[in-house]
Model the fold of this input.
Amino acid sequence: MTQRAKKKLAIYWAAGCGGCEISVVNLHETLLEVAQLADLVFCPCLVDTKEDELAEMPDDSIDVALINGAIRNDHNEEMAHLLRRKAKLVVAYGSCANSGCVPGLSNLGTVDDHLRTVYDSQPTTDSTKGTIPQPRVEVPEGVLRLPLLYDQVRRLKDVVEIDYAIPGCPPEPHQSGPAILTLLHGENLPPRGATVGAGPASVCEECPRTRKGKLITSLKRTWEIDPDPDLCLLDQGLVCMGIATRGGCGGLCPKANMPCIGCYGSPEGVRDQGAAMAAALGSAVDVTPSRGAGDDHAGDHARQLFDAIPDWAGTFYKFTLPSSMLDNAARRYSERDEPQLQEPPPAGDPAPTGTPGPAYGAPWTVPARG
Ligand code: SF4
Ligand code: SF4
Done:
């Protein structure tokens, strides 16, 4: 009996938290099926394969590459291009790869801000030496390089073509497991570009709670109330993102008496998750107190209601800022008004021989705040 050749699987971690790797481990018994079907040929977190060994593999020799994490720096992008060349199917795995997720919230500031915050202005940081890491440092042994941070976090599909998307922060194993097996088998595949391992509709469709469509008179934070376990959380004044979030998790959070925070991103056909949620909330709040009282009064009333939530960008766009219309607007604004702190490195990095190479145009010499 001839044995079928094993498939080849690669998993790569770009700018993310490692939760997507954990979610692969979390496949439990399905992991045995994956291991029977495929060899893990590249996964820096689990397998000691070097990048130059990956580069030496023939193009299209990997069957499936699961890439998680957002594109935060030039190394992330370089690896995305390399895996795109080596793999027949590239899958954007998890929310960071698909829509930017939490790393994407950094698009609300500049790289300059972030470096200064992390290395200069924390009470626990000794900033007296001005120790801001630089993308290129010469030492007696040669030139040390750090990946160059981009001024904006991007999604995987912004830098390479993707074949499939598996959303979630992280993807839930009951959905992602069968999806990974289907992709590895490579038969009866869904149309290229499809989202797999999730449903098309919203979390509300999977939520067992009763929605009465009660108008909200005040917005609450989770610690302020002990919610009724059977009633819709939105009806109870909690900002539950279920209505603006793709289903697939089975309504995990509302089932545990917590509002959905939106980790599966937008449902099919919804362009902007935060805008969809804002529209849903707009029609759910009770405007009776301001009816007939004039625009100013209505504005005050709305402000009072919405001021209860301290971080609107972080609430509405925690998982999708780089996919949003807001991000595009912010990018246009920053391109217009902000000088770019960084410039790309010169082509061809100098070999680490100790010979000084050309300096970058604008390294990360972040000035201390006055
Ligand atoms: S808004 Fe939240 S609690 Fe209400 S039905 Fe949707 S998912 Fe369930
Ligand atoms: S309920 Fe919402 S936040 Fe919770 S796992 Fe599902 S999609 Fe993610």
The beta strands are 7-13, 38-42, 62-68, 71-73, 87-93, 136-139, 142-145, 149-154, 164-166.
